[in-house]
Amino acid sequence: MKKTIIIIAAATILSSCGTLTLSDGAVDILMRGAKTATEVGAYEDAVHFYSRILFQYPDDDAVRLKRALIYYRTLYMQNAIDDLSYLLKKNPDDKTLLLNRALVLTDMRDYDAALRDVKRILQDNDNDAAVIELNENLQMLHDRDTKTISDYNMILSETPDDPIVLYKRGMFFFDSGDTETAVSDLTKFVSLSDDAVMLKDAYTILGDIFAMENMYNDALVYYEKAYALQTADAEIYKRIGYMHYCNADYETAITYYNRAIRIIKKSDFLYGRGLCYYALGKYKKALSDFNACIFNYDISFNFCNSEFYKIRALTYDKTGAKDQAKIEYRNVSRYMNVKADCGHRLFMGISKNSPLVIFQASKVKRISQ
């Protein structure tokens, strides 16, 4: 009962705040609320409470580490990496932080980056049993991936038009960052397959790849093909909306963001629509959406990053709120290494923060509390 009361109190503070500024007493209640929420498994609440504290006190390293642990526990890997990288920028030789980041990178299957962190630890302490074991596991996983590709290649050498293997290899290469080979495999797959579910995923990934290459019209072609296979899909609406935004067709972009928001009110949808409003000179509407990103309970959206602070600062400038703009500008420099979430990766939803079921990371590794 006491735990429930604390969480309700913390949530009430957030919902009743007319401004973004919290009193010391409110911060204390939010801290207790976050701790209690973590204990009872209410991770979305815990992340939101910690994020609100960090928005006001971005240099609170203990809170940031706690949030990173929850992001990792809930499989929001890129957000965990962002927080850990922020802390490592200030403490580059912290072995615990390096180990934690290596564990997250391992679950993201970024074995080369994980090995770099592990080697940095072993430079100063080559007798750490846990780190040595992780190093051995990383080598094994790297070898396993090499064998997986070898197996796919062998099958395709015998049956080059096997759509299932083309799909699997294409998705594997995309997840590994080899977008060129992924495009080749997935393009061939869509010409051979009639499986609607797999086709929708392949069209979406092809669109994501072209979007990352700034080829927005090509991306739109694939997103519209995915849309034709499942019309009421908020993520596809978001992608189409963002392509229209990139093409400076802001009114059309807003139309698609509105469709996505009617299905589910996610913070990255609000953020995208806010950017459109800003581009159209509708600054009050833009600021309303940007603020809604903060108050919206959305664990996937990390609003503590440089791009978010910068666009808010610019918007406050446009509305004449110069003092608030100065505060936002000061925060921009603090987050220069935490910016990916508000670029393509945030909008496309391909940052390892639960993009598609096929890319869900395992929960084998755990960061110790």
Secondary structure: elements and pairs:
Blueprint: H1 2-16, H2 24-39, H3 43-56, H4 61-73, H5 77-90, H6 95-107, H7 111-124, H8 129-158, H9 163-176, H10 179-192, H11 196-212, H12 216-229, H13 234-246, H14 250-263, H15 267-279, H16 283-295, H17 306-319, H18 322-334, H19 344-348
Helix pairs in contact: 1-2, 2-3, 3-4, 4-5, 5-6, 6-7, 7-8, 8-9, 9-10, 10-11, 11-12, 12-13, 13-14, 13-15, 14-15, 15-16, 16-17, 17-18
Please explain how this structure is put together:
- The chain is mostly helical and 369 residues long.
- Among the domains are: 1-73, Alpha Horseshoe (Serine Threonine Protein Phosphatase 5, Tetratricopeptide repeat), CATH 1.25.40; 232-359, Serine Threonine Protein Phosphatase 5, Tetratricopeptide repeat, CATH 1.25.40.
- The protein has 19 helices and no strands.
- The longest helix has 30 residues, at 129-158.
- It is flat.
- Mean pLDDT is 81; it is low at 338-369.
Summarize the structure.
By secondary structure, the protein is an all-alpha fold.
* Count of helix runs: 19
- Look at the helices and sheets and give the structural class: mainly alpha
Mean pLDDT, to the nearest integer, reads 81
Large-scale geometry:
flat
CATH superfamily of the domain at 232-359: Tetratricopeptide repeat domain
Low-confidence spans: 338-369
The CATH topology label of the domain at 232-359 is Serine Threonine Protein Phosphatase 5, Tetratricopeptide repeat
Number of strands: 0
Distance between the termini: 25 Å
Task: Determine the strand fraction and express it as a percent band.
Answer: under 5%
CATH class of the domain at 232-359: Mainly Alpha
Order of helices and strands: HHHHHHHHHHHHHHHHHHH
Helix content: over 70%
CATH architecture of the domain at 232-359: Alpha Horseshoe
CA gyration radius, whole angstroms: 22 Å
Major β-sheet profile:
none
